[in-house]
Design a protein that fits this description.
binds adenosine-2'-5'-diphosphate, Rossmann fold, 6-stranded antiparallel β-sheet, about 270 residues, alpha/beta
Length: about 270
């Protein structure tokens, strides 16, 4: 007799009140990073930049972690960009998913990295490290971002060049996209840097802001609360240090209930 398919085993145990979606594609970038796409439930609404609780059945119990939705609000599928932690409660299992497998998602998305939490401005900076690029992968594919801002600057800092590939692929996809390429035009600037290898741009984004190299390379003036808005997504330390620099430049932190000049969110870990 054949062993039951994995999904049949899952099917009987799926908890109430969550979506059970089907994995459509998985792409591994390095031994630490991968992305996957899955079906989007009919009726599931979110704003580009928000996160959802993503989970798997591990034995009898569902295990969930917060994941930024990397696909834009208009996309028919959902995309996620994930780290692989060898003994992570969720990612040690999630990294093994294949097309056809079932992934759980709680029904209510939330988050602060949304356009609604920012006051109007000219230039939007998105500061990310590692998987912190995920919410921005959503926002840079949303036409509304380009309706609201004249210039969109995506910085992505990783330890190694191989870890930047997701971001490069994303920008390439936008440039070749049938309707997004026209909407985006020359408004999107991608600024990738690495900290532990040689590359065209090296160093932590905080250092590149402090020494002015980021602004010189981009040909833009230093941060100005009149014109510039920011979104930050990375580790706790990265958030703290980047936030301090934005505050030093006179920008204040906003929220959904009180829009201001910048917003922050911790990138998914484990
Ligand atoms: P570094 O190599 O100097 O630690 P991680 O994989 O540890 O999350 O790091 C992702 C990237 O974020 C790395 O390039 C790392 O640089 C950088 N980074 C780590 N901490 C900070 C911080 N406090 N401010 C800015 N960048 C940081």
């Amino acid at each position: 007799m054949n062993a039951p398919a994995k999904n049949e085993e899952f099917a009987v145990k799926i908890p109430d009140g969550v979506y059970a979606e089907t994995v459509l594609a998985v792409e591994h970038y390095t031994d630490r990073l991968f992305r996957f796409r899955m079906t989007r439930p009919a009726g599931f609404r979110f704003r580009s930049g928000e996160f959802a609780m993503i989970g798997l059945m591990v034995g009898e119990k569902p295990v969930y972690r917060a994941y930024s939705i990397a696909s834009p609000a208009w996309d028919e599928e959902l995309e996620f960009f994930s780290i692989k932690v060898p003994d992570g409660p969720l990612t040690s299992h999630l990294q093994a998913i294949k097309p056809g497998d079932t992934v759980l998602m709680r029904k209510k998305p939330t988050g602060t990295l949304v356009l609604d939490a920012l006051t109007p401005g000219k230039r939007l900076y998105m500061f990310s490290t590692g998987t912190g690029i995920a919410p921005f992968a959503s926002l840079i594919r949303d036409p509304e971002t380009y309706e609201k801002f004249d210039e969109v600057i995506l910085t992505h800092t990783c330890r190694e060049v191989a870890e930047l590939k997701y971001g490069f692929d994303l920008v390439e996809e936008i440039r070749n996209h049938e309707f997004l390429s026209e909407i985006v035009g020359t408004k999107l600037k991608h600024y990738p840097t690495v900290t532990r290898e040689d590359f065209s741009h090296t160093g932590r984004i905080t250092d590149l802001m402090e020494n002015g190299k980021l602004f010189a390379d981009l040909g833009v003036p230093p941060l100005d609360p009149q014109t510039d808005r920011g979104m930050i997504c990375g580790s706790s330390e990265m958030l703290k240090d980047t936030k301090a620099l934005l505050e030093k430049a006179g920008l204040t932190e906003g929220a959904n209930s009180k829009p201001a000049e910048f917003v922050i969110e911790r990138a998914f870990v484990g």
